[in-house]
Hints:
- The strands form 3 sheets. The protein has a 7-stranded mixed sheet, with helices on both faces.
- It is globular and about 60 Å long.
- By secondary structure, it is an alpha/beta fold.
- Helix 5 runs parallel beside helix 12 (289-298) and helix 13 packs parallel to helix 15 (378-395).
- Helix content is 41%, strand content 12%.
- It has 2 domains: 4-49 and 304-395, Aspartate Aminotransferase, domain 1 (Alpha-Beta Complex); 51-298, 3-Layer(aba) Sandwich (Aspartate Aminotransferase, domain 2).
Amino acid sequence: MISELFKSMLSTKSVIRELSEKAARMAMADPAHPIEIYDYSLGNPSVPAPAAVNEKMIEILRNEDPLLVHGYSPSLGIPSVKEKIAASLNRRFGMNYRGTDIFPTSGAAGALAHAFRLVTEPGDTILTFAPYFPEYGPYIVPTGCFLKAVPPDTENFQIDFDALDEALTPDVTALLINTPNNPSGAMYSEETLVRLASFLLFKEVEFGHEIWLISDEPYREIVFDGKKAPYVSSFYPRTLSCYSFSKSLSLPGERIGYLAVNPACGYSEMLVQMCGQISRGIGHNCPSALMQLTVAETCDLTSDISVYEANMNLLYDALTDLGLEIVRPGGTFYMMPKCPEPDSNLFSLKALRYNLVLVPCDSFALPGYFRIAYCTDTAKVERSLDAFRKFIRTEY
Length: 396
């Protein structure tokens, strides 16, 4: 008998992917006369990886033992890689990680897949905050857990603690946060994280069980206005940090990241060892040894992420001048304006008439808003501004 669960998921395909594919078809509807489409649908990094990344890969391929480079890595990751990632986190964020607290994964999605299974049992509830990345649903459903969203504070997209207090019931064993956030671009402040940590510690006593904080942070290095993202694990002892080099080093296709277990929890090494057992059940079985070795030597670097800030400022200034309501992003390469009409799907359909591909945020649990993924060439952003002006002034 085929799986009814995954069969049912065929009807809930990614809106983002579908819009991106539609944009490609629109551009080449007449191959003899292709048109420029301003595709703001897909969050795919648009700046190249640092030259040092390619140079390091070449060096490793030339000088390292081929059996190491192309072979299976240890089930818990290459020890020297784990030590270097731990040292980088300690140096940059004042943490006390050891190599044994780090578990290399196939991107942040792989890290989340392990994190969900580490600290929940089937039937538990994982709480997250709207708006949130739509794939959280498909990630969590196969664990047997339930995903529940806390309504947002749309004034600034920090945490609405009254709403959180109402939503956090005894069946909740983990909170999932994403800061800086996809789709809003909002970044939780230190004040918010201090208050969240205090709130969770209080609730642990009230409920008589641990509550884990799972921090999805692939955009941690893409922060604007000269700021740095507060490191979530430094605020709360039971934090699982899920990271990907896809955005910071522009390596989405390499599928490399890690799960870092806060040693302040008291048994981080055991949890990492449990990750090895989880891998057996979900078929993870270690990311590429070549990529582990590469990011170990380049984990303090980033691509030229200044491009994203330049794009954000162009769009923010132009769209707010047109009267759109936007919480100014603190990071990522996304922003989430409020639609000038209640139906965000209809809004996005109208935008297609002006060659603008914009993602309605219904699937992000926030109807009435749309997402712009501005990870594209700055010159193209500039060219798109006239299309935005024509769209908004004509339709609204």
